[in-house]
C-alpha cells in the first residue's frame, strides 16, 4: 500500500467547511470495513478521511487498498511502524487540512447524520470549539444505532449538565468519548498532541487540555457507537495507573478552578485520586500483581489516610507477598 502523506486531497465543492476524519487502525481487519462504511455514508460530503495504519500485520492493509481504489480523491492512507494510537492521531492532526477534525476508532460507528449535525451546531455557535454527542455501547457485532434522525429540535438539544467549561467536571470523570468528538482544528493546535507516554487515557488527558481552550458542548442525540470486545484492552490490568498520572499532571498545571470560576476543593480531588488508586489496586490484586497492589494501597492512604479499604488492601497484598515469597534454603 502506498503512503499518500504528501499528496493533498481536493476539497469538495460547495460552501460546506472541510472536515478531516482521523482514523488510527491497528490489526482491525474485522471491523475497519464497517467503520469506513459509516464514514463514507455520511450525508455530509466535504470530508477528507485520513487513515493511519499503525503497523498492522493482519489483513487491514488489503482492506484499506480497496477503499483507496474506490475513494482515492477522499481518502489518504499513511503507513507507520507500530507506535500506538496517540502517535497515529497526532500524525492525522498534522496532516489534516480541514477546519474541523473528527476522531473515530477503527471499530466504532457513526450514524449518517453525525457530522452534518455537529458541523451545523459549531457553524451556528462560533464561540464553541468542540462538540461531542451521546453514544451507545455495542457488544461485538450487535447493532443498536438509530436508523433515522430525530426531529430538528431533538437533534440539536444540548445536555446542559455535561456542557460548558468542563475542566473541573472532567477531573471527576471522563465524560467524553473519542469517536463522538468534532473539534475546531485551531483548538487542537492549542491543546497540543495526544501524549504517547500514556498507554491508556490519552484521550482523557487530551480533553482536559482542550477544556482549557474552549467550552465543550454535548448533544443529547445518539450519533455514534463504541464497540466493546471481549478482548478489549480496557478489560486487562494496566501496567501503570495512567489515570492518576494524567489527573495529577492536569492539577499541577491547571489547578482546581475552571475558566468560569467553578472550583473544587482539595478534599474532593484527594478522594478522586484515592478512588483511582483503589480501582488500580483492585485490578492489580485481582491479577496477582501483589507488589503493585501493595504500593497502590499506599497511594490510596496518601490521599485518604483513614480509608479502611486502603488498609485492607495494604494488609491483604502484604500477606499475599509473604505467602508467595520463595522459601529460603
Could you list some keywords that capture this structure?
2 domains; eight-stranded mixed β-sheet; 8 strands; alpha/beta; globular; 40% helix; 329 residues; Spore Coat Polysaccharide Biosynthesis Protein SpsA, Chain A
Q: Alpha-carbon distance between the termini?
A: 59 Å
Portion in strands: 15-25%
Order of helices and strands: EHEHEHEEHEHHEHHEHHHH
Helix content: 40-55%
* Number of beta-strand segments: 8
How would you describe the shape? globular
Name of the CATH superfamily of the largest domain: Spore Coat Polysaccharide Biosynthesis Protein SpsA, Chain A
Average predicted confidence as pLDDT: 92
Q: Which strand order do you get reading across the main beta sheet?
A: 3-2-1-4-7-6-8-5
Low-pLDDT stretches are 5-13
Q: How would you describe the overall organization of this protein?
A:
This protein is an alpha/beta fold. The chain folds into 2 domains: 19-235, Spore Coat Polysaccharide Biosynthesis Protein SpsA, Chain A (Alpha-Beta Complex); 265-324. 40% of the residues lie in helices and 16% in strands. It has an 8-stranded mixed beta sheet, with helices on both faces. The longest helix is centred in the C-terminal third of the chain and has 21 residues, at 266-286.
What's the structural blueprint in terms of helices and strands?
Layout: E1 19-25, H1 32-40, E2 47-54, H2 60-70, E3 75-80, H3 85-95, E4 100-103, E5 109-110, H4 114-124, E6 130-139, H5 152-155, H6 167-172, E7 182-184, H7 185-191, H8 202-210, E8 216-228, H9 242-254, H10 266-286, H11 290-303, H12 308-324
Helix pairs in contact: 7-8, 8-9, 10-11, 10-12, 11-12
Amino acid at each position: 500500500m502506498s503512503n499518500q502523506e504528501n499528496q493533498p486531497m481536493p476539497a469538495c465543492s460547495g460552501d460546506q467547511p472541510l472536515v478531516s476524519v482521523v482514523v488510527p487502525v491497528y490489526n482491525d481487519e474485522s471491523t475497519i470495513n464497517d467503520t469506513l462504511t459509516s464514514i463514507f455514508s455520511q450525508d455530509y460530503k466535504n470530508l477528507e478521511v485520513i487513515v493511519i495504519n499503525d503497523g498492522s500485520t493482519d489483513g487491514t492493509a488489503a482492506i484499506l487498498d480497496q477503499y483507496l481504489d474506490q475513494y482515492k480523491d477522499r481518502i489518504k492512507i499513511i503507513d507507520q511502524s507500530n507506535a500506538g494510537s496517540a502517535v497515529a492521531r497526532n500524525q492525522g492532526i498534522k496532516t489534516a487540512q480541514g477546519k474541523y477534525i473528527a476522531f473515530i476508532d477503527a471499530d466504532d460507528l457513526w450514524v449518517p447524520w453525525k457530522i452534518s449535525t455537529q458541523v451545523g451546531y459549531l457553524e451556528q455557535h462560533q464561540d464553541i470549539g468542540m462538540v461531542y454527542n451521546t453514544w451507545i455501547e455495542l457488544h461485538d457485532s450487535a447493532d443498536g444505532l438509530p436508523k433515522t434522525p430525530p426531529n430538528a429540535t431533538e437533534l440539536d438539544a444540548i445536555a446542559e449538565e455535561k456542557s460548558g467549561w468542563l475542566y473541573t467536571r472532567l477531573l471527576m470523570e471522563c465524560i467524553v468519548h473519542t469517536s463522538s468528538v468534532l473539534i475546531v482544528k485551531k483548538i487542537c493546535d492549542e491543546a497540543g498532541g495526544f501524549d504517547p507516554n500514556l498507554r491508556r487515557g490519552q484521550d482523557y488527558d487530551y480533553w482536559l487540555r482542550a477544556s482549557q481552550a474552549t467550552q465543550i458542548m454535548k448533544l443529547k442525540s445518539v450519533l455514534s457507537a463504541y464497540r466493546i470486545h471481549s478482548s478489549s484492552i480496557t478489560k486487562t490490568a494496566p501496567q501503570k495507573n495512567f489515570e492518576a498520572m494524567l489527573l495529577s499532571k492536569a492539577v499541577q498545571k491547571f489547578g482546581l478552578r475552571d475558566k468560569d470560576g467553578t472550583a473544587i476543593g482539595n478534599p474532593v480531588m484527594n478522594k478522586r485520586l484515592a478512588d483511582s488508586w483503589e480501582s488500580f489496586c483492585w485490578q492489580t490484586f485481582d491479577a496477582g500483581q501483589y507488589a503493585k497492589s501493595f504500593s497502590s494501597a499506599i497511594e490510596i492512604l496518601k490521599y485518604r489516610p483513614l480509608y479502611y479499604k486502603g488498609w485492607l488492601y495494604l494488609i491483604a497484598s502484604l500477606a499475599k507477598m509473604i505467602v508467595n515469597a520463595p522459601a529460603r534454603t
